[in-house]
Amino acid sequence: AIRPERRGESPGSGGVTGSLRGTAAPADADPAPKRRVHGMLKLYYGLNEEGKALGQAESLDPCDINGPHFDPELYLNKLRKECSLGELVDQEACMVKQIRSLDSDMQTLVYENYNKFISATDTIRKMKNDFKKMEDEMDCLSTNMAAITEFSARISGTLQDQHAQITKLSGVHTLLRKLQFLFELPARLNKCLELQAYGQAVSAHRRARCVLQQYSHMPSFRGIQDDCRAIMDQLAQQLRQKFRDGGSSAKDLSECVELLLQLDEPAEELCDKFLSHAQARLEADLQGLEAELSKTDILEFIDRGCNEFVSNLCLVIASYQELFINRLGKLHTFVNSLAARYFSLVERRIQEEKGVGDNSLLVRALDRFHRRLQAVSKLLPGSAVPSQGTEIVVQAARERIRQYLSALQTFYLDSLTDVRQALAAPRLTVGGAADLLSSLSTSILNQIKSVLASVHLFTAKDITFSNKPYFKGEFCSQGVRESLVVSFIKFVCQSSRQFCESAGDRGGSTPPALLLLLSRLCLDYETSTISYILTLTDEQFLVQHHTPVTAVTVLCAEAREAAQKLLNHYVKVQGLIISQMLRKSVETRDWVNTIEPRNVRAVMKRVVEDTTSIDVQVGLLYEEGVRKAHSSDSSKRTFSVYSSSRQQVRYAPSYTPSAPMDTNLLSNIHRLFSERIDIFSPVEFNKVSVLTGIIKISLKTFLECVRLRTFGRYGLQQIQVDCHYLQMYLWRFVSDENLVHFLLDEIVGSSAHRCLDPSPMEQSVIEVICERG
């Protein structure tokens, strides 16, 4: 294979081969370096001296073309004897192919290593130049060192005789300087005293104190010692006065104490004075902080407390540890007493944060408060101050959760008030209840999300206390999930059930539409909202259920129970409203002396209108439901006094007032074989079931009122007309039309049973009156 030319080389022998020849050694050169290079190349490519790969067993077969003992003549003779002409031709073609392959591999190897050869040649040439330059520098250095050695020897020879004298004079000079320092010490101390350079004065006196004490028996040194002692007493007096003044900073105070300790003042007395002075300054900081308690926001208050009180406290701790290293018990007592007062102020300020609008300000303030207290733990290991500060942060978070729960409850009650006012509006648009439900549900859900976002600030990664065990575990599960979200869901269910209280309590004045709307809201919570809210909370706060938590199914069951109770109460309230109209219409009429009926009574029209309105109202919030198949003549069913078997027996053509037939017995026998109707049974979550419950209560009330009245001939006929009119419209609202038929049969039958002259109206006349009405 022919590789492309590299670096402008021409193909053929003038390329790579020519370059190699140009760099090759002359023919008469020593062959040893060549052998070494050849050996290194073989070692690089993994070959031995015979050119065979290392680790491969040597072959002694003279016919092995790859072995070191290969004999071409023997190999050729063997091929002639063993192979035919065709095999010889194939063998030749194979060898030619292998030769070409080897040539190609060799050429590829040369091309691939050419750059390495060139680079190695350049490196060797450069190394030769560098070594030549280095040799010149080394020669120059050797010459310089020789000159230096010669000059040093000449100086040593010249000064050899005077070396001892010079050493002696140097010692005398040093001694004179020390004596000069001692004689000038009183003046120097006075100068330092005037300049208030107390540290320099104490340092100079400490340097000379041992010497003066050692030679105090000599009069001259005793005078210097007495002068220095008087000056240092005066300096100590000034330091004590500065210490007592109280206007010094913590740094100046620590310097004073340190100097007094160096002057051998009693350490215990200095310790008490130091703490007393520091306490006065820190109490002043606390008084200033208390004065600003209600004047600034929480962040500014915490910043001031950290920058003044906490910073000064840390300086006192650091200074105390440097000065009184073996008296840490007093320091712990001192720090704990002042920290308790500071924490009291912080707690009072946190309690004033009642607004829940922007939680970030409180969280940032608590973060700075907690962050700055960590410096105390580093300066004073074992102190209870950082843990007490963390507990304050935890209590603030718990209080914040209670405030947010209260805010959610207030928002929910205010939203219900707005819904109540909207329902009481005289012109509520069609679909208004559904729109109100959607608006109420959306606003509550958005408020919950907003509260969760605000509370989530306590667990943000950039907040120092968020890595505490409480905020990783209990805060998320018991705080946010249970105390906030679950408690609010339970509050919604409980407050909704309170609307179902008996009349005279809160539920007595509750609009029925609000009961229906809340019932649908609780049902939506049971089907989807509760699961969504809790899933959102668990994902946002990474809630790990290590502690017992309220299951979703428990909350859903509670919401469904509230929805069922609200819907049952709605049916009861609406049924009682219609029942009240029917009861008054029966009780206020003289059924014995009434005139012949000419039209349907207005109250029956009102009942149908109200039922239709309720049907529309319920249909906006609940699905249709399932009905039994209606008969083709449901709206034309007649209600004569002879329509039932009981009535046919009771009012047969042979009926006479003195007939010896016990009609009460026949009525009771008929009830035994009739299907029992549960008037106040729980309703299902659909429109048909709700309307069925309301109509059952209304007609049952109508029946019971009829049983308490006595009717004349025209009174019975009026009941016939009214019941036929109700049948024309009410059957389409209920799940089973036979229920309406049965109750209306009971009403007409009870009227006939209590009629003094049971003469029914013709069915055709009834239909005319009802169609006209």
TrEMBL record:
Point out the coiled-coil segments of this chain: none
Where in or outside the cell is it found?
A: Golgi apparatus, trans-Golgi network; Recycling endosome
Which keywords does this Swiss-Prot/TrEMBL entry list? Coiled coil, Endosome, Golgi apparatus, Lipid transport, Protein transport, Transport
State one Pfam family annotation: VPS51_Exo84_N
**How does the annotation summarize its subunit structure?**
Component of the Golgi-associated retrograde protein (GARP) complex. Component of the endosome-associated retrograde protein (EARP) complex.
Q: Does the keyword Protein transport apply?
A: yes
- Report the main location listed first in the record: Golgi
What GO cellular component term, any one, is given?
A: EARP complex
Q: Tell me which InterPro entries the record gives.
A: Cullin_repeat-like_dom_sf, Vps51
Name under which the protein is recorded? Vacuolar protein sorting-associated protein 51 homolog
Instruction: From the UniProt entry, list the residue stretches annotated as the region Disordered.
Output: 1-33
So what does this one do?
A: Involved in retrograde transport from early and late endosomes to the late Golgi. The GARP complex is required for the maintenance of protein retrieval from endosomes to the TGN, acid hydrolase sorting, lysosome function, endosomal cholesterol traffic and autophagy. Acts as component of the EARP complex that is involved in endocytic recycling.
Q: Which family does it belong to?
A: Belongs to the VPS51 family.
- Choose any GO biological process term that the UniProt entry carries and state it: endocytic recycling
Its gene is: VPS51
